[in-house]
Amino acid sequence: MVVCFVYEEIIICREYHKAGSWKGNEFGRCCGGMGSKEKKMKTLCLHGFRTSGSFLQQQISKWDPSILQEFDLVFPDGLFPAGGKSDIEDVFPPPYFEWYQFNKDFTEYTNLDECISYLCDYMTKNGPFDGLLGFSQGATLSALLAGYQAQGKVLSDHPPIKFVISISGSKFRDPNICDVAYKEPIKVKSAHLIGDKDWLKIPSEELATAFDNPLILRHPQGHTVPRLDEAAVRHLCEWTTSVLGDTFAHRSCNLENSGAEETNTASHSDVNSGSLIPTYLSDLRRELVLLRMEKLIRSGNLEGGKNKIRGNRRKLVLVENGES
């Protein structure tokens, strides 16, 4: 039996033998190395209209580290210099860029084909990329690339896009684009951050319907990359875990609880609760009890028989019940 624990970016496994001994080893040797820094999800981050990659990087940096630690984020600048005034001139220095241009009704586009070709070439040369993250114009583009790839229109020589994180995105309105990109539900994991005061609230909701089983995270702010509250962090962490597809180890997200130790039973329905490190070993019919812990699992050591790992407040305390 192998139980895997997460410590920062390294996943450590404890292999339990019937003789009652534990053997520690690196996750890479027994489960393919998903926990190493090199295995972070490489993500292309596309900024909004007349801003820059550096500005989006600053916006994203205010998110909880428990989310960002899973991603290798790349922030390119738009293909074209801003053709007019930027809305961020008072808060962030130039230069500013745009990905393409559009008319007042957002039904006609200039340089969109050039933009798509540029991004596909960028992803091929600098990738492969696991997914896309975008704000506003960048989010609209991210969804378009995922939809186009699903229909075989672009990125045929690039691995399938695994996920899209859309912040204040929208659909294109040109029927020629819609008939291809949104022809069928896009079977890519997606998370959509939608602001209650965003002027693109309704278009953002419409974009979410283009995806199969989207995660929608609402916030009370406007057209911005929002700060995420505790619940949003938890949901996004759970979603990220599902993207990782890691069935052996589950990430602890935003665990700030401290104080007296408490016991909780981890059942099958608790596996993705986000409030505990979910450990589920139903095949061995063992009930696992986890005690409240601080941010990350620190360490564990065997003490007193075959079925206990004991520790202090800063350590995981795990009790296994049942026969080996």
Automatic annotation (TrEMBL):
Residues 39-230 form the Serine hydrolase domain. Pfam families: FSH1. PANTHER family: ESTERASE C25G4.2-LIKE (PTHR22778:SF55), OVARIAN CANCER GENE-2 PROTEIN-RELATED (PTHR22778). This is Serine hydrolase domain-containing protein. It comes from Ananas comosus var. bracteatus (red pineapple). The lineage of its organism: Eukaryota, Viridiplantae, Streptophyta, Embryophyta, Tracheophyta.
